[in-house]
């Protein structure tokens, strides 16, 4: 079974143009031919009516009378024939060779007065009965047939010339139209040949508008892909760096125990402490990576949740674990939001962890839930050192940490806020960061409010 080969721009335009031109040509030929035929038929019918009136008045019975009528009517005697069928069945011809014309085979055109007489041509035929005689009138349509031949020949030649010129023009037009698309496709193929490299922008023509828009969409897709590829590379680099440090520490302490453990047993507890600390750090990092991986593939079914009740519960359970005083603020009306309970619990816990790590031990942390027209907000505010404005655009990136926090005193992998941002997005919400008053940081999560029954 043969499959249809895909066509190029030139093939599609050429075939469409050829079909259009042929269709227009056929319509013109038919229209002009029908108009000419109808006009000639009306003329022949008018002549037949005039001749019938003259025959009915004069009661022509011989050739001399017919010549007199023919001269007065202006008819072409070479194309006009009359046969008289008498009451006794005999036939009289008013022109020479009439007997052979009467004996010739004839075919009538249905629904018309046209009759084709073999060897003589096409005639307009009509019969008139008067005075016991039947006059058979035949008016020749030779002019009509000749004009149709000339007209159709001229139109066929004109259409043929137009088709040749049109195909040449279409070839140039198709080449000009397809050039931007071919250039775009070539650039896309080159970009696809190096999937591991950052792709450059594809050429964007000014016209046709459709191809320009397609190139623009491709470039937006490439920019998104480049950003994703860059983030993946950065993620792998940062994850490798973060894992390399605890592994190097663990291996260094193990080597130290092997070399000097027998002679200096007092270093063993200290080295084991470092190993335990670094392995715990590595465990937390791997758990955070798993959280991110699961969040990327998670499917969330949002349900109405009493956000204020959930926040109060988290605050009550979290307070004994930290030294900073926790304060919950909420409206009297229950704040109902759309979201996943487990994810919202994880979001609030992560924000509290972040506030705990970067706030002084004696400064309070505030959790606030507020309702608005169509949204519900959850805010965690601390009185720490705050986040510089230049760093706020990056704090939700994976492994990003503010420079001031890169110290051994504050543990962390830089994944906590990235996980929070991912979970907020899965719940179709937004998260923003701003300065707190008089100092510190405010993280605000905005969720869609649940409709009240």
From TrEMBL:
SMART domains per UniProt: HATPase_c, HisKA
First-level EC class: transferase
Organism classification: Bacteria, Bacillati, Bacillota, Bacilli, Lactobacillales
Predominant localisation class: membrane
Intracellular or extracellular location(s): Membrane
EC number: 2.7.13.3
Organism per entry: Levilactobacillus hammesii DSM 16381
Signal peptide segment: none
Transmembrane segments: 20-38, 148-170
Known catalytic reactions: ATP + protein L-histidine = ADP + protein N-phospho-L-histidine
Entry protein name: histidine kinase
Family matches, as PROSITE patterns: HAMP, HIS_KIN
Highest taxon listed in the record's lineage: Bacteria
GO cellular component: a single term: plasma membrane
Domain HAMP: 175-230
The entry's keywords: Kinase, Membrane, Phosphoprotein, Transferase, Transmembrane, Transmembrane helix, Two-component regulatory system
GO molecular function, one term: phosphorelay sensor kinase activity
Domain Histidine kinase: residue ranges: 238-451
Pfam hit, one: HATPase_c
């Amino acid at each position: 079974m043969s499959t249809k080969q895909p066509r190029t721009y030139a093939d599609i335009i050429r075939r469409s143009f050829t079909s259009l031109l042929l269709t227009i040509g056929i319509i013109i030929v038919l229209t002009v031919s029908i108009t000419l035929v109808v006009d000639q038929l009306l003329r022949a019918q008018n002549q037949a009516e005039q001749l019938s009136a003259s025959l009915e008045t004069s009661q022509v019975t011989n050739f001399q009378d017919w010549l007199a009528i023919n001269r007065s009517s202006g008819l072409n005697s070479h194309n006009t024939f009359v046969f008289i069928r008498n009451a006794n069945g005999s036939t009289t011809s008013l022109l020479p060779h009439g007997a052979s014309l009467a004996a010739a085979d004839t075919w009538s055109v249905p629904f018309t007065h046209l009759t084709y007489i073999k060897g003589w041509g096409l005639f307009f035929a009509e019969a008139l009965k008067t005075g016991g005689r039947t006059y058979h009138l035949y008016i020749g349509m030779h002019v009509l047939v000749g004009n149709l031949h000339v007209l159709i020949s001229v139109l066929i030649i004109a259409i043929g010339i137009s088709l040749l010129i049109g195909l040449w023009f279409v070839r140039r037009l198709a080449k000009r139209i397809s050039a931007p698309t071919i250039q775009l496709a070539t650039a896309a193929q080159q970009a696809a040949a190096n999937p591991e490299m950052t792709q450059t922008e594809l050429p964007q023509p000014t016209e046709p508008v459709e191809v320009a828009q397609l190139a623009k969409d491709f470039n937006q897709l490439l920019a998104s892909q480049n950003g994703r590829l860059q983030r993946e590379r950065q993620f792998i680099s940062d994850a490798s760096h973060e894992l390399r440090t605890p592994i190097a520490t663990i291996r260094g302490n193990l080597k130290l125990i092997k070399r000097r453990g027998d002679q200096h047993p007092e270093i063993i507890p200290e080295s084991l402490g470092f190993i335990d600390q670094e392995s715990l750090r590595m465990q937390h990092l791997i758990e955070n990576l798993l959280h991110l991986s699961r969040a990327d593939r998670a499917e969330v079914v949002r349900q109405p949740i009493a956000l204020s009740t959930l926040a109060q519960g988290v605050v009550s359970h979290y307070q004994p674990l930290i030294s900073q005083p926790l304060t919950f603020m909420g409206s009297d009306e229950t704040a109902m939001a759309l979201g996943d309970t487990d994810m919202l619990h994880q979001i609030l816990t992560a924000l509290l962890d972040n506030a705990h790590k970067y706030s002084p031990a004696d400064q309070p942390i505030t959790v606030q839930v507020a309702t608005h027209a169509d949204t519900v907000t959850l805010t965690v505010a601390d009185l720490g050192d705050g986040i510089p404005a230049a760093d706020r655009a990056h704090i939700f990136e994976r492994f990003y940490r503010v420079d001031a926090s890169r110290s051994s005193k504050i543990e962390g992998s830089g994944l906590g806020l990235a996980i929070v941002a991912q979970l907020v997005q899965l719940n179709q919400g937004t998260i923003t960061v701003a300065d707190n008053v008089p100092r510190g940081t405010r993280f605000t999560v905005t969720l869609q409010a649940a409709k009240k029954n």
